[in-house]
Amino acid sequence: MTQSTKRVFGSCCGKSRQFYFQNDMKTAKTAMSTLRITPNQCIALMEALQQQSDIFQKTGGVHNAALATPDHIFLQRSDIGRHNALDKLYGHALIQQQSLTNRVLIFSGRISSEILLKAAKMRISILLSKSAPTTLAIELARDLNMTTIGFIREKSFNVYSHPERMIK
Questions:
Q1: Per-residue pLDDT reduced to its tens digit, 104-155
Q2: What is the mean pLDDT of residues 24-45?
Q3: What's the chain look like in SS3?
Q4: Catalytic residue among 4, 7, 13, 167
Q5: Per-residue pLDDT, 105
Q6: Which of 59, 46, 55, 98 is nearest to 78 (CA)?
């Protein structure tokens, strides 16, 4: 058995020397979902994420992560750390044995390669963020068949990968 020497470098939270061997991506799941979403749903879900976070409303100092259908949020978590907010969300879903197939992940923070890989392990096919993805996250999203939409603000956003899940 030979190990691939292709490396994927990521920079996150000061770990700029962290890398993954291509074989490490085997734990990530290629998105197979046929879930689709409209532009209005993307904007409405981001607005709902911000409105549902009382801590964010009071402080502006936390990250939020939520699981949703294209029409509504059913689980939301906040934390000062963006990774922690996502981990809390995923942990709760695992404990409750909730299926995450055909779910949308809504996120307030930057989409790093590490965040994207966590979403892939959750079997997420559509990832929405108020912030931007890194170049590496976009490349991974393309490889893992994930739709990544960022800079969702007011009436605009950018689709970075797999736009075929957008209903026009």
A1: 999 999 999 999 999 999 999 999 999 999 999 999 999 999 999 999 998 9
A2: 86
A3: CCCCCCEEECCCCCCCCCEEEHHHHHHCCCCCCCCCECHHHHHHHHHHHHHHCHHHHHHCCCEEEEEECCCCEEEEEEECCHHHHHHHHHHHHHHCCCCCCCCEEEECCCECHHHHHHHHHCCCCEEEECCCECHHHHHHHHHCCCEEEEEEECCEEEEEECHHHECC
A4: 13
A5: 98
A6: 55
How far from the centroid of its chain's Cα atoms is residue 54's Cα?
Answer: 21
Structure tokens at 77: 């978590």
- pLDDT tier, 14 (very low <50, low <70, confident <90, very high otherwise): very low
Amino acid at 9: F
- Tell me, which fold does domain 31-165 have in CATH? Cytidine Deaminase; domain 2 (3.40.140)
Residue owning tokens 């691939």 = 4
Residue 13 among the catalytic residues: yes
